Transcriptional regulator (Knoellia aerolata DSM 18566), 312 residues
Amino acid sequence: MIDAAGLRVMRAIADEGSFTAAALSLGYSQPAISQMVRRLETRTGTTLVERVGRSVRLTEAGAVLARHAGPVLSALDAAEEEVAAIAGLRSGRVRLMAFPSASATLVPKALAKVKAKHPGVSITFSEGEPRESLAALRAGECDLAVAFVYEGTDLGRGEEDLEPFVTTPLLDDEVLLAVPRSHPLATSTQVDMAALQDETWIAGCPRCRGHLLQLASTAGYVPDVAYETEDYVAVMGLIAEGLGIAVIPDLILKTVHHEDVVALPMTPASRRHIVAVTTPDLQRVPAVKATLDALVESAEAAAKWAAQSSGR
């Protein structure tokens, strides 16, 4: 009913004492001021300005609007400035979630890139497996999630409706076989999954356990999973002591090392796809887009380094 332009006119009339002077101060014509007052009176259903000779004075209702105009217009100006700052990446907030191995590799470099380019943008970060981060994204509790999916499965795994989301590919992460250095297969150049039927296995996160079961099923057996832990430092320790073997994505092996553990390529080859997930609307928010771009750059750098270190 009452717009910002009408409030500006009422304040100018109160300050200047006439339509002509108010028009001059606002850069409008005098007829335009008269028309705006009439429109505002129609909307409010009451007289706002009383004409007295060549001057005008505000009625009680007009004075109320003029009195409130200052704080309201100041708040609008402040809001416009804040929005302009966000749009111009002078400020902004992004809530990012990522799974543990990404939080140790891709995420730090991406956050550093955003901080260097846009120091006014604030990014908060929390760790969560894909199921948790996608649920948080759906609930409006995060703006951007870094998740992963193994080949042959979908990102939501039937747990989440992915229709509201948009995904950006970041990295294809090779899954390797980790064995003790003392294991007979430790000197192999490649290991067939079908040859591991009699091994004792160590399983990781729920998605990783599911992937192990799928690989073994394809090879024709059910793996003997004796140990389960999502702590990959513990997984490496168990392997090093000869208690079992595990399939571990290369990104994890880049962050958790053990001199008594050897990582080997497998056949058939296996990969997991790392993606960034957000919503179509959030993707257009400048701070979210800048963070997404930084994640893509970080992933490209990681892929280049991996190719160089492997000689590919």
